[in-house]
Write a structure and sequence with these properties.
Elements: E1 2-7, E2 12-19, E3 23-31, H1 33-37, H2 44-66, E4 75-81, H3 85-102, E5 106-110, H4 111-117, E6 130-135, E7 140-147, E8 150-156, H5 162-172, H6 179-187, H7 212-228, H8 235-264, E9 268-272, H9 279-291, E10 295-297, H10 309-320
Helix pairs in contact: 2-3, 4-10, 5-6, 5-7, 5-8, 6-8, 8-9
The structure holds 5'-O-[(R)-(carboxyoxy)(hydroxy)phosphoryl]adenosine and zinc ion.
């Protein structure tokens, strides 16, 4: 069965085709980063309008790359939430119209489930069960993943997400948007040991996180430097601060991920979401897991941040697990800007 998937929850328009047997066939993606850059962050109304402009050309592109035509498609998936309401509505209405016009089932997908299952598109792919560290712009969660649709929340952030910590500190350092990649790039020139920054909740027994104190600490360091140097921060100090910030975030994520492995007794860790593209996090988790006799899995680098492939793929996983009613052709739909992942879990028997 071939499923076309649409992602439009935030600032990326993604369309992809996945086969329930063969996996990902093709995907097409447009990032709105350049458009939002001059505003220093995502402007929701501009995001929605741009999704409208991009979605049909990207649909053609994905189908062409897959060597398929519309009539080859058997089902349509789309991100139904969480995300920006207007942006979600674009993907949802295009997907539902596609499905209605072709007489196909439409499958609403939870964006985080897309991220969570995306490492299964990599080769080698992890077997269930595994611990998932989900680190996106809006979420930081540790989960025990027993199978498709069977997720147990182990811990989550009490305030800012790890991605937000990257973005907010980058912003106050004047690095622009999106902050994560910018801060991480600058950090390559810096010394991570040069500024002592807090590792919030690293010693707490639970698996929760807190990142909001970190940006305040960075702001305080910046103010101190400026006070001492007549308002000037040197390039090296900027790089050192970036490296110290990245090290603090990576430390906390790694400490809590290992704690989750110990608590669950599992040996496989899966990292998903935009922050999973961070090289320091990748190499740190790879080495600590190896040292413990475990293994860490990441999505292919280009599929860490938002994309259509993970949405079509999550739909394929749900179909294969028998969790989708393929006879539902009602096409009544809604989007859910706020949506707990727990709602898409199969009831425990
Ligand atoms: O998963 P994602 O694309 O969107 C959400 O669902 O939120 O994640 C975006 C987040 C942003 O906070 C961005 O700064 C962060 O992922 N990010 C990174 C890197 N690439 C993206 N953070 C650190 N290092 C990176 N290389
Ligand atoms: Zn995302």
């Amino acid at each position: 069965m071939k499923i076309i998937g649409f992602e439009s929850s935030c600032d990326e328009t993604g369309v992809a085709v996945v086969c329930t047997q063969q996996g990902l066939l093709a995907h097409a993606l447009h990032s709105q980063i350049a458009m939002h850059q001059e505003y220093g962050g995502v402007v929701p109304e501009l995001a929605s309008r741009d999704h409208i402009r991009r979605v049909l050309p990207l649909t053609r592109e994905a189908l062409t790359k897959a060597g398929l035509s519309i009539s080859d498609i058997d089902a349509v998936a789309y991100t139904a939430g969480p995300g920006l309401a207007g942006a979600l509505l674009v993907g949802a209405s295009v997907a539902q119209s596609f499905a209605w016009a072709r007489g196909l089932p439409a499958i609403p997908i939870h964006h985080l489930e897309g991220h969570l299952l995306s490492p299964l598109m990599a080769n080698p792919r992890p077997e269930f069960p595994f611990v998932a560290l989900l680190v996106s712009g809006g979420h930081t969660q540790l989960m025990r993943v027993n199978g498709t649709g069977d997720y147990e929340l182990l811990g989550e952030t009490l305030d800012d997400a790890a991605g937000e910590a990257f973005d907010k500190t980058a912003k106050l350092m004047g690095l622009g948007y999106p902050g994560g990649p910018a801060l991480s790039k600058l950090a390559q020139q810096g010394d991570p040991g040069s500024y002592v920054l807090p590792r919030p909740m690293q010693h707490s027994k639970d698996l929760d996180f807190s990142f909001s104190g970190l940006k305040t600490a960075v702001l305080t360091r910046l103010r101190d430097i400026k006070k001492q140097q007549g308002g000037v921060v040197t390039d090296q100090q900027q790089a050192d601060l970036a490296a110290s910030t990245e090290a603090a975030i990576v430390d906390v994520l790694a400490i809590k991920a290992i704690k989750a492995m110990k608590q669950t007794g599992l040996r496989r860790l899966v990292v998903a979401g935009g922050v999973g593209a961070n090289h320091q996090l990748r190499s740190r988790l790879t080495s600590v897991l190896e040292a413990r006799g475990g293994k860490v899995f990441f999505p292919p680098l280009e599929l860490c941040t938002d994309n259509g492939a993970m949405i079509a793929f999550a739909a394929a996983m749900r179909v294969n697990a028998g969790l989708v009613d393929l006879n539902d052709h009602s096409h009544a739909f809604t989007v859910r800007p706020r949506w707990d992942l727990h709602d898409v879990c199969t009831p425990l028997v």
